[in-house]
Amino acid sequence: MRTLIGLLSVLTGSFLAIIGLLGAMGSALTLKLLPGRGVEEIAKLPERAARSAKSKYGAPRVVVRGTVAAGPDGPYRAPLSESECVWFLATQTVSVNGRRATVDRYAPAPFALQDAAGNRVLIGPECPALEQIAPSFRETRAASHPWFDESPKLAGSAAGEAAPKIDVFEFVLTEGSDLLAAGDLTQTADGTPALAGEVTLSAGGDAAASGDPARRRLPRDVAMAVAGIALCVMGAVILSYVDEDDFAPDRNVRPGFVTPQ
Question: Which residues cross the membrane (predicted)?
């Protein structure tokens, strides 16, 4: 019985150790080779922005999470839903046979993300990629919405072709909501950190907002590897107390003790 327990401990421990070590190595390499995946602390952005301004490799892409706050010119009144917000995107889109045209209008100035200590980073205002953010206004129209100063036009439309329907959307951010933002880290003239470029916004309820999956997996994989190694050691200790007399056919021989010669 002792032999069986020892062998099972060694085999199970070896399996857990191998799976845990492989997982930990994969997570560590992912975090090392793909920088910018982890959620950055807003308080550390000014120092990093100052360093990157002197770098020859350009602005690094970072991910931050915080509470939405008004920027230098906010808050605003959303143009379509007329709701109060700190940022908005109003868009008109037409699509026919794979051809697509869009007119986007953003809030005129950036909004801010801040942490619990009040540290801030400016975002946008141009944020073309939105994830898990529901529209505050939605409408399908035969003609352009009167608020827009331009209507979407499809290139190559034939004369006399029926005008396609126009899909109108509005997205807003309200003060106090939880948000994840990814973009190129820069800084304003007064040294305030800011995210620009192809900025992506994700609602706080998005799975990505809880941080980098590789970073979350790493402690679990390390713990699994440590548990596996511990099981291997325990199994080896148990097996060390097993001798050949454990398998002796003589029932008068007590297992675990060496027969005197």
Answer: 222-242
For residue 111, the cross-strand partners are: 123
Rg (CA), the chain: 30
Distance CA 182, CA 201 (A): 7
3-class DSSP assignment, residue 129: strand
Residue in the structure block whose two tokens are 């997570």: 27
Query: Among 44, 21, 25, which residue's Cα sits nearest to residue 33?
Result: 25
Residue labelled with tokens 């997205």:
171
126-185 pLDDT per residue, tens: 998 898 899 999 999 999 999 999 988 877 665 556 678 999 999 999 999 999 998 999
Distance separating the N- and C-terminal Cα atoms of the chain: 25
Question: Domain coordinates of the chain in residue numbers?
Answer: 2-27+215-247, 39-210
Burial of 158 (0-12, 13-18, 19+ CB in 10 A): exposed
Long-range contacts of 104-107 (CB under 8 A, 24+ apart): 104/128, 105/79, 105/148, 107/74, 107/76
Q: Angle, to 10 degrees, between the axis of helix 213-240 and the axis of helix 2-33? A: 150
Question: How far is the C-alpha of 197 from the C-alpha of 191, rounded, in Å?
Answer: 18
Tokens representing 109 are 């100035």
Q: Counting beta carbons within 10 angstroms of the beta carbon of residue 60, is it exposed (0 to 12), middle (13 to 18) or buried (19 or more)?
A: middle
DSSP code of residue 258: P
